[in-house]
Amino acid sequence: MTPKLIIHGGASSLDDKGGLATVRQSLHQIVAAVYETLTAGGSALEAVVQGCELLENNPRFNAGTGSVLQSDGQVRMSASLMDGDRQNFSGVINVSRIKNPIQMAQFLQGQTDRILSDYGAADLAREMQLPIYDPATDFRIQEWMEERGEDVRKKMARLIADPTAGIEARKGTIGVVALDSNGKIAAGTSTGGKGLERIGRVSDSAMPAGNYATRFAGVSCTGVGEDIINECLAAKVVIRVKDGQDLAQAMEKSIAEALDNNTDLGAIALDHQGHIAWGKTCPVLLAAYHTGTAIGDTLELTDGDHHGNI
Asked: What Gene3D superfamilies does the record point to (predicted)?
């Protein structure tokens, strides 16, 4: 089996991340590095963790370092990992003060309790002896102060999300889906959230709605988390493949349904035959992939290009 790989850096504007050339270089470099792992015999699970770590470490993307700040000015991150061969899902929700949430999701693959939220995730970070790390960047702090406006000058700032805040801040996520040389699939997704959210809000990224894989296919999603949850998008695409639709059909039908529901989301996918697919209802999907012979991306798709496949 020729390994295949697809990654995404979210659904927000290219301009917010340094422009087309900068984003393309970042994504292509990560695809190349992770694909080397796959061609050297690395497993899909190893490749997904590596890819998520590299994306989390890039401050241009809203995951790990460079995550957006919540209503109270704190960073809380969520991530999940799914081993398609074992159909095993693990994840952490609203974890703080660590560098790579995907590492915690990886650790939980071998545990009986595989999804932990804030307090449990904090205890796990101490158990794993992960170094304390502040993922907030100067850019994100300044962004938060500008978004909050006069509120940060008050004695007690509001601690609930502003429903009028710009939508671009709500669509940052990273994700990786890999098919290894043994035909096994894995998917991983990580996010800093949508920014300015109400404390305790849970995103799709640590749910099967936003990250799902079986031995038939794997999907990682990005966009407005509530829309992805409402569509149960990742699981829907994978189940349709299992039920006999090819990956392109499953993605096209699922995105068509999401368009009818006026959603704002995107998804990347691979199947066990090595097909690559993506879909979106949002204006842009920051994705790149490796076909086994070449690297490509979706960065210049127009608003009317709602799905594609290779």
From this structure: (Glycosyl)asparaginase
163 confidence band (pLDDT: 50, 70, 90): very low
What one-letter code names the amino acid at 220?
S
CA 20 to chain centre: 20
> Computed from CA positions of residues 289, 294, 300, 305, in that sequence, does the dihedral angle turn out positive or negative?
negative
Please state, in angstroms and rounded to a whole number, the distance separating the CA atoms of residues 234 and 238.
6
Domains, the chain, with CATH or none? 4-67+81-89+166-309 (3.60.20.30)
**258-281: average pLDDT:** 97
The answer to whether 95 and 203 have CB atoms below 8 angstroms apart is no
Residue partners of 113: CB distance under 8 A and separation at least 6: 120
Q: Quote the crossing angle between the two packed helices 44-56 and 101-108, to the nearest 10°.
A: 160
Are 39 and 3 within 8 A, CB to CB?
Answer: yes
Amino acid at 173: T
* Strand partners of residue 287: 8
Q: Which residues are catalytic?
A: 173
Cβ–Cβ under 8 Å, residues 7 and 268: yes
Task: Quote the pLDDT of residue 269.
Answer: 98
Count other Cβ atoms within 10 Å, centred on residue 304. Answer: 5
Q: How confident is the model at residue 153 (pLDDT cuts 50, 70, 90)?
A: low
Find all residues with CB under 8 Å of 144, minimum gap 6, and list them: 68, 69, 73, 152, 195, 196
